[in-house]
Amino acid sequence: MSGRRTGSRTTHAVPADGTEEQAVELAVVARQAGVRVTLVRRYVEFGLFEPCPGTNQPPLFDPRCASRLAKAERLRRDLGLNYAGAVLACELLDRIRELEDQTRREPDRSARCGSTGAER
Amino acid sequence: MAVEYKDYYEVLGVPQDASQDEIRRAYRKLAREYHPDLNRESDAEERFKELGEAYEVLSDPDKRERYDQLGAQWRAQERAPDGRNFEDFFGRQDFGGDVRVEFGDADFSEFFERVFGDGAAAQRSGPLRGLDREAVLDLSLEEALAGGRRRLSFEDGGSVDANIPAGVREGQRIRLAGQGGAGRDGGPSGDLYLRVRLKPHPTFRRRGEDLDLDLPIAPWEASLGATVPVPTLTGAARVRVPAGSSSGRRLRLRGRGLPKPGGGHGDLHAIVRITVPKQLSEQERDLFEKLAEVSEFDPRESRA
Prior knowledge:
Strand content of chain B: 15-25%
Structural class of chain B: alpha+beta
Radius of gyration of chain B: 34 Å
Shape of chain A: globular
Strand order of the largest sheet of chain A: 3-4
Order of helices and strands of chain A: EEEHHEHHH
Strand content of chain A: 5-15%
Oligomer: heterodimer
Shape of chain B: elongated
Number of strands of chain B: 11
Order of helices and strands of chain B: HHHHHHEHEEEEEEHEEEEH
Largest sheet of chain B: 4 strands, mixed
Helix content of chain A: 40-55%
Radius of gyration of chain A: 18 Å
Largest interface: A-B, 38 and 59 residues
Helix content of chain B: 25-40%
């Protein structure tokens, strides 16, 4: 784990349900992901994420896009994927995550699904 | 011994005479298995880093040759009685310049840097934000309701002070910006997400945002009605027990539950539990006997 956390620092906690976080411009996504703007554009072309609805001049993005982009890019670089493959991997990971959340919320139901889980 | 020898062949699970093709295949397979974005086991990241380091060496014919030589000497040295150490064989490699190249989320091992020198890692593809992490935050109901500063400790010995917002809910995620994995090549750090898990409470049972609580009531209080103290998460309150309350009756204290997602609070339900004295005084016994004589109440009437 990173050494940055060693020693104590005070950090303000933000409720992470996204409600109070504001949409950001492409350049901000790039900065927060540590990458160039052209890379963000490329991922938008490949459909990793879209501008928030109704934003065009300039297009605005969900602030969580930076972390999503970084994940796609790590997978692309580390596993030798192409852009489409990295986007697909992210989408599949999202789906796994949703299913896991669902399992946590409804343990009984997931137990029943488990027996027929092979269908999917 | 200053630095521990690393068996890169073992890390990749290939024999010493493995072809470049085999090495590449083994690395790719294991990298998919242990990539920290794909594998959330706590040791995956460490394992992935090792894989990258092993692959960096074994996939480069020059480095591999040097590494193989080292292995032979290392074994010879282990037999040598004079206790010469690592530096006697390789000295301190100095490649000039103080550039430190990172692979993955951290530096290569000290072993790698001793053998190949700082800055010998070739995999460099530009800055990138680090991994987001997630941890479970166990809170009592009181802590969740009140919020406040909380120091969190991590397995690696690090710690962080987090301000927990008042009224966090089960399953809610709290983001600590910049407290995730370190970025690569100077990229920003990822975020740390704390997923709230509410601990079972000795007094209150949670049903969504509502809370249940057993309220012991004397038989005469239940019959005649009474106003009795009741604990809540935010301190003591009083609740009116209407005359003629049987066990199981739910007395609602509106808004004394947990915060709801859309605002407002759930309710606290005090559930009447009629409780009798274990031992009766003489006078109590007299009175109960008198009551038994005169009462026409049959609690089992409806079953007949």
